[in-house]
Design goal:
15-stranded mixed beta sheet, alpha/beta, two-stranded parallel ribbon, globular, about 500 residues, single chain
Length: about 500
Amino acid sequence: MQQTVILTLLDLISLKGIFSFGYVLFVLITIGVIIHDKRDPVKALSWIVVLILLPVAGFLLYIVFGRNHRKEKMFNRKELHDLEQIDEMSREQVYAINNAALLLRSEITENRDIITLLLNSNKALLTNHNRIRVLNNGTVTFDEIKAALRGARSSIHLEYYIIEDDPLGREIAEILIGKAREGVEVRLIYDDVGSWGLSRRYIRHLRNAGVEVQCFMRVVFPWLTSKVNYRNHRKILVVDGHIGFTGGINIAQRYLTGTKMGPWRDTHLKLEGEAVRMLQIVFMTDWYFVSKQQLTDHAKYLPPTTVRDECLVQIATSGPDSDWASIMQAFFAAITRAQHHIYISSPYFTPNEAVLTAIKVAALSGIDVRIMIPSRSDSKIVYWASRSYIGELIDANVKVYLYRKGFNHSKLIMIDGVFASVGTANMDMRSFEDNFEVSAIIYDRRITEELEEQFLEDLSRCRLVTREYWETRPVLHNIYEAVARLFSPLL
């Protein structure tokens, strides 16, 4: 009996040794893969520390959140034949710009480098005939959206990160159901993680009325590990191929009535003209990804525009389906060439080292750099991680403002009155690397100055972070910030 117990213990010890050896081997192989990826050193070192300090859990976290799908080509858009035409048109525009065919307009001359960058890296065609209305809160935005939906005659295409089953969400659903019953083609893409609380009843109600509904990358075990970290953060609505909306606002009641943090401040755009065709192409590409259905009726979905107003816009996208972090690159390029001022609003501010350095260098060079972040947040760890950057920004002469009248969810960057970005991308590593994002890059003085005026008005609702205020904050806050900053590259 005693001999049997001893043998059993020896077997267990042997199994433990085999498991330990296997785990160490897996960790070493994973570290080798991280190093081989040649990813951002800070992010790579963060993952290596997690793997070493958190046995088993660290490995599982890496499998779920750490894999680089841009390199793995998990998302492939090359099957779409329409993109070949976009590729050819982008090459023609690059040629025209570089051969002075389009340089008669100052807006193109002043932004030639960024326009060319986005054409080369993102095939983001430069559009000219556009009309834009800036929508500065949820009430105005949803008044315009509901009016556009009710006026639809041919097609409605929606793509949102968050759709809530709340009073606003149900009102939008009823409008879509009514239009589908009238014979309008209605298609909806929602993100499975962002819209986690969306009920099956809500979806079934839409589908029973004829609305085509697709979920972006459903997260279901055991396929969880390859999907949960790469989310569709885009907010796109296109009606009849003529009217488009994009910006920071999701379909949720909080954009109308606020939350316990107070009113939700956000910025959205209503577009008419050639840029709407580009938003439509983004939707059509994403629709193919989720449904494998190509929308080929270009006469219906990509009709010619009658808008003759002139406003230069590029619709830029980024995500694991593209070879380049295009929106981040555009932000970096715009910041580095600023001459007078840079205004940034972001609810989640955890930039990568390149963008952070560009911001600090600009401020140290005498550029007026102002960054607005919330004084409260709906994400504690991102809140503390964002605050961890404040000290070094102040040291570099950046003016940091904490928005105090509710929660500012706007994602904006305006530079020198000639460049503006309004879209879904935060100034953070997740938006730069992992999420599917979309942004309207605008080269127009009137629209940029309108956005800048609203930004400066919002500063009146902020507290400027002074060095004295910052250095006298509680010691515990410093600890929270340091820990959150350590893990921010993994978020």
